[in-house]
Amino acid sequence: MSAAITAEEINAYLAEAFPISGQRCIDVGERWAIAAITPDERARRPGNIISGPTIFGLCDAVLWYALFGAVGLEPMALTSELSIRYLRPAQGDTVFARAELHHVGRRSVIGSIRCWVDDAEDKTVAVAQGTYIRPQARS
Amino acid sequence: MSAAITAEEINAYLAEAFPISGQRCIDVGERWAIAAITPDERARRPGNIISGPTIFGLCDAVLWYALFGAVGLEPMALTSELSIRYLRPAQGDTVFARAELHHVGRRSVIGSIRCWVDDAEDKTVAVAQGTYIRPQARS
Amino acid sequence: MSAAITAEEINAYLAEAFPISGQRCIDVGERWAIAAITPDERARRPGNIISGPTIFGLCDAVLWYALFGAVGLEPMALTSELSIRYLRPAQGDTVFARAELHHVGRRSVIGSIRCWVDDAEDKTVAVAQGTYIRPQARS
Amino acid sequence: MSAAITAEEINAYLAEAFPISGQRCIDVGERWAIAAITPDERARRPGNIISGPTIFGLCDAVLWYALFGAVGLEPMALTSELSIRYLRPAQGDTVFARAELHHVGRRSVIGSIRCWVDDAEDKTVAVAQGTYIRPQARS
Known about the structure:
The structure is a homotetramer.
Chain A (H helix, E strand, L loop, with lengths): L6 H11 L6 E5 L3 E6 L6 E2 L3 E2 L1 H20 L6 E9 L8 E10 L3 E10 L8 E8 L6
Antiparallel strand pairs in A: 1-2, 2-6, 3-4, 5-8, 6-7, 7-8
């Protein structure tokens, strides 16, 4: 099977709905997505370190894009819970995140996320795991 | 016992180190802190909802301030892990977060956080729980 | 308001449904509960330390009892997610857990839990936070 | 590179240290491990469902075995934090868990875990993510 949406379609939606977020979808599949952000000064710490909340925001976004890959554009899907672990400082220009879905249910979508910086894909800077609630099921 | 630092001292530090974050410390005690942010357009969703990552960023910050309340200013303390649960949309202008510390160790500090919007302190919008690693113990 | 159930009623249900779990409800309110377990050898580690999964199981149980306090006996409510942090070794005979609910929705219940051992209530051994999904909303 | 220990060595250690846990290591690599448990009545719910805390306990164990695979037997490594998400009821006889390590540091080890039941490896019943603290670094 193939993804329910393309990265171009996700980015077109983001450009309209969140023109200044800076987050972009790099690629998307039926149960996964890759996203990136090249944050500006506001999201940096001394030593050219990308801030933790910026990485969290990217994890949150890439899980949403993976959900889009599974079920199509669903803007009203909302993060229910997300936990993140930071492994090493995210030193560099661009942080990438890849989400894999474990579960695509009628009410919820659950996935894991791994993050790295620039071309150091083997040096994980953070991992996360979380749940989106799909629109009809919001409590 | 009293806090190792005041809210004014924390805000003076933030104004110098993170002049554009918008986060501020409202109050701080020996094992707790309260923080707030009144985010601009970038951090808002349709319906005047404050974005999830903005709330996460505030949880992350207020746990840091509570750590300062316990041990004094410690800029190199780093978030090790943080999990957040969203309870209802954060509709309003200003989101507040209160952190309570459960543990202040030589190597780590663990706390819980509760968030609300404007003066609706009894309507929790998010809860979180997480760990900071203190400088000498970074792995 | 008062709790929707008493500790005696919860314990009567547990004795019938889970006669060998060893977990018991100590007290319950409208949005909170206290539980305890005095585990046998199987759940102990060298040094009379109560095992981590035993503490997790008690956190899971006490959140369920707090849900009962809020809405009455609801055996089909299921844990959706739970995160736990261990603060110090749980040395002693009986571990206690107290859950506080942050949210009681039609579909989900969210709460925080704090654990201690024997009469050292001020020495937290673990904290947790998690979500139960109520029967009608299982995804 | 190869694992620092074999599944047989881990099981020999478990048989001596935890003779009645029922958990066993199926296989182990340099950065991963697979574990299983076939729980008795105590860990079952109506409908032949394996209990949530039993699955949590297996996640906790398999992350420990993966750590052994990376650094050798290290009984004093302790769970620092672990979060679990349940995806569907764990109906069946034996639950399996596979841990993958993202980080093997001097002070901490971080990994993700996926669980399934019997031979339905593609039907994930739970996912987890967590941190072990290595002996020299306990806070």
